[in-house]
Amino acid sequence: MGRKWNNIKEKKAQKDKNTSRIYAKFGKEIYVAAKSGEPNPESNQTLRLTLERAKTYSVPNHIIDRAIEKAKGGGEESYDHLRYEGFGPNGSMIIVDALTNNVNRTASDVRSAFGKNGGNMGVSGSVAYMFDHTAVFGFEGKSADDTLELLMEADIDVRDVIDEDGLTIVYAEPDQFAQVQDTLKENGVEDFKVAEFEMLPQSDVELSADNQETFEGLIDALEDLEDVQNVFHNVDLK
């Protein structure tokens, strides 16, 4: 799964360059999570997991607090979770997840980004079947072998654990996100470089230099959209 980790690392590096955009997206996601139940991470697991993910991007406390206070105050904004699927150069596959208060606007923006940047939209299900929804963690301080052993002792059935670029990477079932993270914390892992839900491609594709340039422009255009939260793909970025 090394290539998959490289794609996650590349995506996180790109996001880290666009902190204001990432903070805005997390602010929206935290607000939606807080409104989905009690605005308290102790009793709202969705909110708790969102805050844990926000920590890996160093989202400031004032953004978190403002989003939660807005939810507590009975904010009237309502958002829909949407997923779009499409294709880039040379049959590359792309999944776009959005959180929007205007479905028509978002659909139009996503379709336009595909059309103007060498891609095209697909129908629902045309791409997602080639990806696996996965919880991914990256951290320092424990070897892959030690990590696998302690997770097995906790009766957690992980997909894979590898050592990569100085980090231990854990791939797990998405519904075990909290259990994996809690177990790692209880065993001394304090700082997660990655704690995220990903759509991992079952196989990667490589593009020519020209096609990769077009592809990267398409991904940038999609990620720049106000309503887009995540973009997943199956290209082996170099």
TrEMBL record:
Where does the record place it? Cytoplasm
Q: Entry's Gene3D superfamilies?
A: 1.10.10.200, 3.30.70.980
Lineage top rank: taxon: Bacteria
Residues annotated as signal peptide: none
- Domain (TACO1/YebC-like N-terminal): residue spans on this chain: 3-74
A GO molecular function term, named singly, is:
DNA binding
Keywords from UniProt, A to Z, are: Cytoplasm, DNA-binding, Transcription, Transcription regulation
- Family to which the UniProt record says this protein belongs: Belongs to the TACO1 family. YeeN subfamily.
NCBIfam families listed in its UniProt record:
PRK00110.1 (NF001030), PRK12378.1 (NF009044), YebC/PmpR family DNA-binding transcriptional regulator (TIGR01033)
Q: What is this protein called?
A: Probable transcriptional regulatory protein QQM35_05005
Record the organism: Staphylococcus hsinchuensis
Q: What is the lineage of its organism?
A: Bacteria, Bacillati, Bacillota, Bacilli, Bacillales
